């Protein structure tokens, strides 16, 4: 058992492949790793390892996607003129701020949970924002984040040793005990091939709006908070010797190609 290291393992988590000996250890490992225990149907499988079981799993996954899309299409309220006008307004306002905001079709998880709004009086966005801390396997969702707030202020309630919530501080201890100069904020560059994932490094001292300018956003921003001293597989654009630095907004493709990765959230 990889949780208690005392008893012989009887179960293996379909999600993270950790071995457990009992229901108690299963619950402990889910809590410690923020694991939901559900098999990742979209995990990458190389061609050499691809089997008939993987083919069957993909087939059933596509069937589930079809059922979800069909069910979403039946909700007429989701296609109301008022909702369409709201989405058009958000995309238009984002375009004026040099942000390429993409919205997904009805039925997608990110489309349902997105709470981003634009205040016409204040003339600024209030973003739905997701923070992911990979080294602690933790993620948090923020709603109504003003676009003029700096990333440093956004992260204070999470990694600041003084101002952060005690419970969150304990969970993100590896971040709170690290110097601020070691913290990097990354955002995935959209419209790239699955085997060529790259990230943009953001400036914590600048506002959320300034950091999002010139970027492609699908529904809402997702920020990855990492530590430079810890090894991770996130390649920052321009730091790979095999490719030159390039601007993220120069990469364009059809919306269908972007949805290829997002459809799996449905």
Explain the overall architecture:
This protein is α+β, with helices and mostly antiparallel strands. It has 2 domains: 11-65, no CATH class; 76-227, Roll (Ubiquitin-like (UB roll)), CATH 3.10.20. 32% of the residues lie in helices and 18% in strands. The chain contains 9 helices and 10 strands. The longest helix is centred in the N-terminal third of the chain and has 22 residues, at 52-73.
Helices and strands, with pairings:
Blueprint: E1 11-12, E2 19-20, H1 23-33, H2 52-73, H3 81-96, E3 100-102, H4 109-113, E4 117-119, E5 124-133, E6 138-146, H5 151-159, H6 166-171, H7 173-176, E7 183-188, E8 199-202, H8 208-212, E9 216-218, E10 222-227, H9 255-262
Parallel strand pairs: 3-9, 5-10
Antiparallel strand pairs: 1-2, 4-5, 5-6, 7-8, 7-10
Order of helices and strands: EEHHHEHEEEHHHEEHEEH
Q: Strand pairing plus helix content: what structural class?
A: alpha+beta
Can you count the beta strands? 10
Residues in β-strands, percent: 15-25%
CATH superfamily of the largest domain: Phosphatidylinositol 3-kinase Catalytic Subunit, Chain A, domain 1
Radius of gyration: 20 Å
CATH top level class name of the largest domain? Alpha Beta
Q: What is the helix fraction of residues, given as a range?
A: 25-40%
Apparent shape: globular
pLDDT under 50 segments (min length 5)? 245-266
Distance between the termini: 33 Å
CATH topology group of the largest domain? Ubiquitin-like (UB roll)
Strand count, sense and closure of the main sheet?
6 strands, mixed
- The CATH level-2 architecture of the largest domain is identified as Roll
The pLDDT mean sits at 81
Total number of helical segments? 9
Taken together, the total number of domains comes to: 2
